[in-house]
Amino acid sequence: MNSATSALPLPFDHIEAHAHLSRTDQRLASLIAKVGSFHFKLDECDSVYESLLEAIMHQSIAGKAAQSIWARIKAFGANGQCPTPAELLRVSEDDLRKAGLSRAKVASVRDLAQKTIDGVVPTLAEAEKMSDQELVDRLISVRGIGAWTVEMFLIFRLGRPDVLPIHDYGVQKGFALTYGKRNIPKPRELAKFGERWRPYRTVASWYMWRAVQLAGPSARKIKKAKVKIKVKLKVKPASPSAAKKLAKKKTTKARAVTKLTRKRSG
Question: What pLDDT band is residue 8 in, cutting at 50, 70 and 90?
Answer without folding.
Answer: low
